[in-house]
Amino acid sequence: MTTAAKQTPLHAAHVASGARMVDFAGWDMPVNYGSQIEEHHAVRRDAGMFDVSHMLALDLAGPDATHWLRRLLANDVAKLKESGKALYSCMLNPNGGVIDDLIVYRFSEADYRIVVNAGTADKDVAWMRQQIASTGVNVTLQARRDLAMIAVQGPRAIQRATAALPELSTASGIPAPFSGARVGDLLIARTGYTGEDGLEIAVPAARAEAMWNALAASGVKPCGLGARDTLRLEAGMNLYGQDMDDTVSPLDAGLSWTVDLKDEARDFVGRTALAARPATQRLLGLILEDKGVLRSHMKVFTAAGEGETTSGSFSPTLEKSIAFARVPLGSKAGEDVEVEVRGKRLRARTVKLPFVRNGKPLV
User: Fold this and answer.
1) For residue 183, what are the contacts with CB-CB under 8 A and spacing of at least 6?
2) In whole angstroms, what is the distance from residue 80 CA to residue 21 CA?
3) Domains of the chain
4) CA end-to-end span of the chain, whole Å?
5) What is the DSSP string of 105-142?
6) Is 224 within 8 Å of 29 (Cβ atoms)?
7) Which long-range contacts does 15-24 make (Cβ < 8 Å, 24+ apart)?
8) Which of 16, 194, 283, 316 has the maximal Cβ count within 10 Å?
9) How far is Cα 198 from Cα 208, in angstroms, rounded to an integer?
10) Which of 246, 270, 271 is nearest to 261 (CA)?
11) Radius of gyration over alpha carbons of the chain, in Å?
């Protein structure tokens, strides 16, 4: 017997809008509302919104919260000096593989919000609780399934969201980039997964549909998972389960910048394994020069050896097929390579990520 997919608090709104729904990480989610390409362009050129309520918010509190997070995560929360500042990090296993990638918001030394991926949420919480129990720290971890989350993204996202939501017109309503602010019962974060400016808003589930409708009325276009994937791919942002997982080191997945080794006394989980296994691969972008579509798990032939695509799709902004490729460490951006597509070797070019940022092609 198959388990029924879970529904977010916005499910009825998606169905009423004619969304095409698909199972994603056990959740019934909108993949598009008609044209995925139009949704993609709306985010690049104006404003679009995504239901990201399938992701899980966790509240961490207690006197040992900072100390515990410095051990749990490969990036160092000690960098966060101001209330509301956010940090992107990987959470590693003892072998140096990525259990998940996540965002942490610091409000005080004893008060954090953590947002984890939908498909790994149960695994993440179990791992965190195990780490709390094994270290005996004085913290509490609360899973916030009482919340919905809406991401409003694009060059006009903040303008349109401010017109729709009274909370954003308060002094603390619009936080600085990569920061969050608590405004009433909302957590408003200046973060996103598209390479555009925008907000991710955590809202009580009972208020979510009214907020979604208000944003739509102000001209924010509802967007599905299809556009979210092409946007994050253009923006050079990894997707857990495709571009890295618990068998892949962040050093091989283009995420070495999230591993903080400055404090030699900070013994985070996986540090010893990373030191014993330096990077052997790097992540580069690919642009296909021949006709075809790049997907994941295609062989890539470079002068330095063989690699593999991890994510791939058609880029609506570049109007070309693009991909991420994990290739030998000796590979460089700007080289000609070949990709095996349906038994044929097609010409491609390596580029430094991202492909697009703030609406502008960078390649």
Assistant:
1) 167, 168, 170, 172, 173
2) 38
3) 1-250 (3.30.1360.120), 279-361 (2.40.30.110)
4) 48
5) EEEETTEEEEEE-TTTHHHHHHHHHHHHHHHT-S-EEE
6) yes
7) 17/222, 19/222, 19/224, 20/224, 22/225, 24/54, 24/118, 24/225
8) 194
9) 18
10) 271
11) 20
Q: Which two tokens stand for residue 117?
A: 């991926």
Residue the block writes with tokens 């690919």: 286
Alpha helices in 243-298 (DSSP H): 271-276
What does each of the 363 residues of the chain score in pLDDT, given as a tens digit? 567 899 999 999 999 999 999 999 999 999 999 999 999 999 999 999 999 999 999 999 999 999 999 999 999 999 999 999 999 999 999 999 999 999 999 999 999 999 999 999 999 999 999 999 999 999 999 999 999 999 999 999 999 999 999 999 886 779 999 999 999 999 999 999 999 999 999 999 999 999 999 999 999 999 999 999 999 999 999 999 999 999 999 999 999 999 999 999 999 999 999 999 999 999 999 999 999 999 999 999 999 999 999 999 999 999 999 999 999 999 999 999 999 999 999 999 999 999 999 999 999
Cα–Cα distance measured from residue 241 to residue 253, given in angstroms and rounded to the nearest whole number: 12
User: Which pair of structure tokens corresponds to residue 300?
Assistant: 């890539």
Query: What pLDDT, on the 0 to 100 scale, is given for residue 173?
Result: 75
Which two tokens mark 354? 């991202």
Give the type of residue at 318. Answer: L
Residue that the structure tokens 């729709």 belong to:
164
Cα dihedral value 278, 259, 363, 280, nearest 10 = 10
The predicted pLDDT at position 39 comes to: 98
As a whole number of angstroms, the distance between CA 102 and CA 187 comes to 16
In angstroms, rounded to a whole number, what is the distance separating the alpha carbons of residues 139 and 110? 8
Question: In the numeric block, which tokens belong to residue 307?
Answer: 């690699």
Round to whole Å and give the CA distance between 240 and 118. Answer: 10
If you search the block for the tokens 């695994």, which residue do you land on? 123
| Interaxial angle between packed helices 36-45 and 225-234, expressed in degrees from 0 to 180 and rounded to the nearest 10 | 50
Instruction: Please tell me the distance from the alpha carbon of residue 19 to that of residue 245, in angstroms, as a whole number.
Output: 30
